[in-house]
């Protein structure tokens, strides 16, 4: 639907940014829809097979990099971000270095961000509609083929670092992204410039060396991919480097100098649930499927599935210090109904000389 030509779009853009902040977004910007350079990068990445089993990355063709093909009529993309690390969360390195504990990526400790941000984006759209009348829009939060980091960069929210994560000069990288595709011809913001310089800490720290070069991530080696996206067996050579990371990985962000500026979350729903910010591996391994489903309700952890959850924890236990408690936990699942879980339990048993 066309919108009125009498609208002061510069003023509207200013108002939209104010509304977005009032709704809890930490930052907001407006981008155009030209992503030609990023489309070429994506096609090279796919051709190299770096997406692994994430077939959905290739399934949608060029709609991912061409917003107007994904949502006809799109002229601009309103990009928003929301900080996610809640105050009082235990030091991440302390958990990673305590091999009796399980490390869960900080973004996944609370409520699933998709629902939180999508609701806020819908409220933002409603406010815009009150101001301009009917207009075409669609809200996305990691829920469709969208090049969200490239769009956010073009909207001025940050630059894409050498680890391929978006970095904001004033807030580091611990934040979620969301988008509102719209047919409103809003003035676009200045794209963010890059500030990684010669730093390569993220490349050097990666436990599995998944960052194969600056701005080049081989997802097939990435612990986030291995523990969430990959179904079936984790490659044996990557199990020991995983350590106790059972859902996602934050190492490349933890060493990034820009995260000294990271902001704490203001959204109460992102607070850790069920003490998952530093749980014991043996306790998690004892969860029944019903416990897993009830304790991860409304959380991103559900994406791993119960079988994947146990598989990941079995690897963590294989890397844990040998103790009677660890051995007992491993032995208790030696005959697990899942062949995948049994395989990783067998690996863990061998690691402890069983």
From TrEMBL:
Residues annotated as the enzyme's active site: 142
- By its UniProt entry, which InterPro entries does this protein fall under? 4Fe4S_Fe-S-bd, 4Fe4S_Fe_S_CS, QueG, QueG_DUF1730
Query: What keywords appear on the UniProt entry?
Result: 4Fe-4S, Cobalamin, Cobalt, Cytoplasm, Iron, Iron-sulfur, Metal-binding, Oxidoreductase, Queuosine biosynthesis, tRNA processing
Q: Sorted alphabetically, which PROSITE patterns does this protein's record hold?
A: 4FE4S_FER_1 (PS00198), 4FE4S_FER_2 (PS51379)
Instruction: Identify the Pfam families for this entry.
Output: Fer4_16 (PF13484), QueG_DUF1730 (PF08331)
Q: How is the cofactor bound?
A: Binds 2 [4Fe-4S] clusters per monomer.
**Matches recorded under SUPFAM superfamilies:** 4Fe-4S ferredoxins
Give the UniProt subcellular location, in the record's own words: Cytoplasm
Residues binding [4Fe-4S] cluster 1 are: 196, 199, 202, 256
This one is known as Epoxyqueuosine reductase
Q: Which organism is it from?
A: Luteibacter jiangsuensis
């Amino acid at each position: 639907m066309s919108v009125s030509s009498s609208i002061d779009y510069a003023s509207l853009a200013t108002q939209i940014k104010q509304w977005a902040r009032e709704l809890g977004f930490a930052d907001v910007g407006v981008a155009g829809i030209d992503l030609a350079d990023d489309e070429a990068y994506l096609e090279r990445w796919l051709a190299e097979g770096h997406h692994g089993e994430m077939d959905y990355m290739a399934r949608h063709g060029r709609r991912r990099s061409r917003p107007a093909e994904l949502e006809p009529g799109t002229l601009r993309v309103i990009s928003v971000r929301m900080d996610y690390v809640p105050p009082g969360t235990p030091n991440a390195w302390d958990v990673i270095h305590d091999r009796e504990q399980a490390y869960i990526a900080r973004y996944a400790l609370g409520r699933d961000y998709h629902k939180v941000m999508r609701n806020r984006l819908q409220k933002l759209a409603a406010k815009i509609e009150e101001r301009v009348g009917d207009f075409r829009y669609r809200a996305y939060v990691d829920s469709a083929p969208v090049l969200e980091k490239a769009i956010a960069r073009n909207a001025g929210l940050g630059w894409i670092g050498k680890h391929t994560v978006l970095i904001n000069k004033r807030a580091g990288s611990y934040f979620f992204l969301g988008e509102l595709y719209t047919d409103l011809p809003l003035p676009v913001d200045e794209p963010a410039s890059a500030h990684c310089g010669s730093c390569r800490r993220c490349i050097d720290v990666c436990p599995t060396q998944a960052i194969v070069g600056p701005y080049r991530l081989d997802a097939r080696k990435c612990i986030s991919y291995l523990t969430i996206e990959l179904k079936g067996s984790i490659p044996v050579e990557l199990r020991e480097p995983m350590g106790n990371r059972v859902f996602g990985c934050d190492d490349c962000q933890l060493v990034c100098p820009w995260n000294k500026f990271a902001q704490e979350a203001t959204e109460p729903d992102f607070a850790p649930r069920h003490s998952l910010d530093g749980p014991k591996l043996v306790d998690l391994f004892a969860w029944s499927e019903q416990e897993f489903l009830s304790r991860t309700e409304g959380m991103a952890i559900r994406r791993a599935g119960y079988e994947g959850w146990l598989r990941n924890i079995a690897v963590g236990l294989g890397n844990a210090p040998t103790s009677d408690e660890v051995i007992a936990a491993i032995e208790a699942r030696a005959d697990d109904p899942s062949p995948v879980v049994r395989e990783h339990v067998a690996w863990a048993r061998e690691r402890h000389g069983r």
